[in-house]
Structure prediction request, 422 residues.
Amino acid sequence: MHRSSSSTTSSHSATTAISPMDSLISSRLHAFSLSASDSSRIIPGLPNDLACLCLACVPLCYHGRFKTVCKAWNVALSGRFLLDLRRAWGKSEEFLCLFRDDPSLIKAEVFDPRVQVWTLLPPMPCDPSTYGLSNFECAGVGTGLLVMGGSLFDARSFPMDRPLASSAVFRYDQVSSQWERLSDMTHPRGSFACGVSEDFVIVAGGGSRHVQFPAEGNRLSAVERYDIKEDRWHALQDLHKIRAGCVGFLLDDEFWVMGGYGDSRTIAGVLPVDEYYRDGEILNLKTGRWRKLRPMWEKGERRRLGNVAVLNGTNGRSTSIFMLEGSAIFRYNIAANRWFRESHLPHMISPEASLELIALHGELYVISGVPMEEFHHFRRKRGTLLLQIYHPQRQTWRLMFTKPPLDHRSVYPWAAMCTLRL
Prediction:
């Protein structure tokens, strides 16, 4: 019985396709094991390849302590190889990265919800002639963090108080703890839709609108694809119409763009008002062609699309799309092309508060931009943030209180946030 099971397992593993990353890691582990002598073992009594697998299972929050054990552990835990090994073996962890303002002025904050520990990233390199970056997009790609585009002011332009779109792309390397400048986008843009995978990034639409001028700026319909390995941008088919302030995400072999605004109208010929879209567009990544998405709600049902988060399916479950509108959570039904109410926040937040919705660890995190002193029914330290976390499968809520390292009670709206997988 035991021999039959072993032969079956061996036959199955022989026919299973091995990814390039798995073969590369296997070759490195094999070379690592052969080159190690008894005196250079990472863990005495164990081959170094097996020792690397053991260290890959250690949560990242303990790596700082483990590096102080000995030089061999410090070297093993400080390299990129161990992070690649964690991803290949499914041991990677998700972290929350938040930007409060211009990343060249205020450091990004990384939060580990498992142990409720915060880490600060170094400021992004800046151009002395530009300032006030806003409406940029951030995304976690591999072991890095991308910051793309945005709207800013340039002291060399005239008039100086007119915002300009940025085409700059920066990457923060978690291993070297350094920022580097990547190839610029072909079209400068901010407030755009963005879809991220392991190999490429797609951006669509956008414009030059700045948070200080919420009713101005141009709009784009241009679409680009960034090849991560080649560090090059390639033009794709444009959207059917100009669209800024939209939401983007990848779903199977498609890139979805929802909502946003295009042309604006004026009230009494003076006050400009945006015309928000109720529809969207879907790009087929195989054919490279767009198709239109019908309006997702009736006129008068809602003014604009809320904050959208995509929860990737695991254990055979399908991917789910959620939206935060006010204090309510909605789930998108693809077949019906409608948003249906899913749940309601357990604690009401004032309309002036800046709420963000993001998917993390199979849950939805609702993060308030208002510090805890605004909530009189909670007795917490000043600067403490309230995280309301919803589990879609269990349909339950839980609360988390945490105090970030930076105290910016006057900066309520979040500039951007994303998840990192390390």
Summary: The radius of gyration is 24 Å. Helices lie at 2-15, 20-35, 48-56, 63-66, 71-78, 80-88. The longest strand covers residues 261-267. Confidence is low (pLDDT under 50) at residues 1-22.
